[in-house]
Amino acid sequence: MDKIVQFVQKSNCNATTVAVFGAIGAAVVAFKALSLFKVFVDVFLRSGINVKKYGAGRGGWAVITGASDGIGKEFAFQLASKKMNVVLVSRTESKLKAIAQELEEKYSIQTKVYAMDFTKGADKDYQALQQLLEPVEVTVLVNNVGTNHEIPTPFEQETDKIINDIVEVNINAAMKMTKIVVPQMVARKNGLIINLGSFAGLVPTPYLSVYSGSKAFLSSWSQAIGAELAPKGVTVQNVNTYFVVSAMSKIRKANFLIPMPKPYVRSVLGQIGISGGASTPYTSTPYYSHAIANWLIDNVFSRGFWVNKNYDIQVDIRKRALRKREREAAAAKNE
């Protein structure tokens, strides 16, 4: 009889344990499903802060770095279409002037251009740019300029120049540009700072270690200054970006995961202040396929899995890039 009682008690205990763990599992699944549902609501149903809040149509100026091509150029056109005056900053003056003329003729806005090589990090350039911006009401800053490794490369084999260029362009330029414009934003209690981040800052990327580290810095720094500036009326948004068709990505054809600059920038400007697929503060992953990918990285498999996955991808890309270099060298030798 005692054995029967013990068996019943043990069975009840086991059933209770199973029920408790089942309830926990169901709660976890429900939470994950709810977070995925929120991603779809964010990217397909919600509208972000209208750029009119930041001076569009009211004489506000947007400063865009890396403005002569790709994403930066598209930001210039879309902000100009919303009646924002624009300051275009990039390396090639002839390109900047041509874009500025087109923007003025098409949208009847004002423009300014400043040609500088961000890899040099020259104080005289930043001082001249500060003087150029002092008379205007800067309400938006797009820290878009960036550079990457030429091909995936082990850190110990990377050149000092490429390492220094990545740090100077991806880290120092963003801080210096922000330092120039943020005082007047704080004084007016209104401003928007968009930092172009990367999935490489979300998941460490072997063979692109310096670039990956620079984007991780940008993510952490954006969150820090975002918290500092929010009570002062300035919105900071680190835009977590997967690949976009551009010269830097070296991708020429769009697909589900890799959009053209136009729809990508439209998603960024349409969802200011909305997290989309991002789970970190003051960060947004607005483009729908990027948002889903961001959610999967945060919720499926371990971070170690994704780091190792990046390793395999970059090793394969490096092999193909080296073979291409060998073919080009052989072809040049035979000419």
TrEMBL record:
Gene3D superfamilies: NAD(P)-binding Rossmann-like Domain (3.40.50.720). It is a single-pass membrane protein. The active site is at 211 (proton acceptor). It comes from the Eukaryota. It catalyses: a very-long-chain (3R)-3-hydroxyacyl-CoA + NADP(+) = a very-long-chain 3-oxoacyl-CoA + NADPH + H(+). Pfam families: adh_short. Pathway: Lipid metabolism; fatty acid biosynthesis. Substrate binds at residue 198. Its main location: endoplasmic reticulum. It is found in: Endoplasmic reticulum membrane. Keywords: Endoplasmic reticulum, Fatty acid biosynthesis, Fatty acid metabolism, Lipid biosynthesis, Lipid metabolism, Membrane, NADP, Oxidoreductase, Transmembrane, Transmembrane helix. Signal peptide: none annotated. Component of the microsomal membrane bound fatty acid elongation system, which produces the 26-carbon very long-chain fatty acids (VLCFA) from palmitate. Catalyzes the reduction of the 3-ketoacyl-CoA intermediate that is formed in each cycle of fatty acid elongation. VLCFAs serve as precursors for ceramide and sphingolipids. Belongs to the short-chain dehydrogenases/reductases (SDR) family. This is Very-long-chain 3-oxoacyl-CoA reductase. It comes from Podila minutissima.
